[in-house]
Design brief:
Elements lengths: L4 H4 L3 H11 L4 E6 L2 E6 L5 E4 L8 H8 L4 E16 L5 E6 L9 H5 L11 E16 L10 E17 L19 H8 L3 H13 L3 E7 L2 E6 L3
Parallel strand pairs: 3-4, 4-6
Antiparallel strand pairs: 1-2, 2-3, 4-5, 6-7, 8-9
Helix pairs in contact: 5-6
Length: 228
């Protein structure tokens, strides 16, 4: 069967998750309401595997959600090894990436589609995995990679899932008590994430009603959790 545009440049990580979540009796690369869904389970739940920003799939997910349940699967690579090959196919070296993924990465993805968790029937699921990234020293990669291009990502371990079915599930990202006030800097310090990601986190959580701004301290906004 000829490969579709949707699968032609698909990494193995994306493909393996697509088949795993669609299930043995499900379908993959299926047209629905004018868009191509990564998968549809036997029970009719639409599966979308998204490794980057949710912004590009925002409209598609909204339309799918009007048809039924949708699950957006976001792989978080906890540990990544990088393997670099020469143009002759021989491996030059293998190293462990210093970059470690975390569940907080979801807010990088949601910042340009912060309304998606508010849509009834839309679940965001984090798939915590390990992966190998295959690169080739072929002169075709970006300047910051010095011409080394990424060819594939291979899942080497699946650890667990974090399922976010409704806005209230996002309270897990707020390590503060009711009426306790905090800033993005304090959130970053308490959770170990950088302040830029903390700002994105609070932007999304404010949009979905989990936290609210209560004031300002010099140049920093003050927040509190909307815990009942």
């Amino acid at each position: 069967m000829p490969e579709s545009i949707g699968t032609r440049y698909e990494y193995d990580l994306h493909r393996d998750l697509k088949y795993a979540y669609a299930g043995r009796r499900g379908r993959t690369e299926t047209t629905l309401a004018g868009f191509v869904a990564d998968g549809i389970t036997e029970k009719g739940e639409v599966i979308e595997i998204q490794t980057g920003s949710f912004g590009p799939i925002r409209k598609k997910v909204e339309i799918f959600a009007a048809q039924g349940k949708v699950k957006i699967v976001y792989p978080v690579i906890l540990t990544k090894y990088i393997e670099v090959f020469g143009v002759d196919g021989k491996r030059l070296y293998r190293r462990k990436s210093p970059r470690k993924g975390s569940p907080w990465d979801i807010f990088d993805a949601l910042v340009h589609a912060s309304e998606l968790p508010l849509i009834p029937g839309v679940t965001v699921e984090l798939a915590l995995v390990d992966a190998d990234e295959i690169r080739f020293k072929d002169g075709k990669g970006s300047r910051w990679r010095r011409g080394i291009s990424v060819r594939n990502r291979l899942m080497t371990a699946f650890h667990r899932r974090i399922r976010l079915k409704k806005p209230a599930d996002y309270f897990r990202f707020i390590p503060f008590k009711k009426d306790e006030k905090f800033t993005s800097a304090l959130l970053g310090k308490k959770t170990g994430i950088d302040v830029n990601l903390a700002r994105k986190t609070l932007y999304v959580l404010t949009k979905i009603g989990i936290v609210e701004k209560t004031g300002k301290l010099r140049n920093a906004y003050i927040y509190r959790a909307n815990i009942k």
